[in-house]
Amino acid sequence: MSSAPIFFGTVRAIGAGTVPSTDDASLTAPSNTTTILTAASGGTKIEQIRITQVATTSSAGLVNLFLYDGSAYHLFDQYAFSTLALSSSVRLTPVDLYYANLILSSGWSLRASVSVPGGVGAFKILAFGGDA
Which regions in the chain score pLDDT beneath 70? Predict the structure, then answer.
């Protein structure tokens, strides 16, 4: 065990992206992903991912979150969304996912895809944490 606690060297909102303009249901080798963030040279720890619907309508499907090591995709988590139509009387409700041990080594990245055409471009994803 370390004799001193480890804290972020740099605390910041570290990544943002909108799910891609083409759907991709692959869980092993997606070809349509958006890079949310790439790890810093000393590594990056992600503590929170926020997913918010930004399009007026969506059909039910999945937002797939991947860890990409530079050559292969590794499915990390999924967010299931239902059919939703936003209006001036329907409030946006972001979904927050929290992680205690999501650490990316240098060269790795967090990427996202959406499984159905009705979710294309419908979700903004933010990642929060810090760099070593």
Answer: 1-13
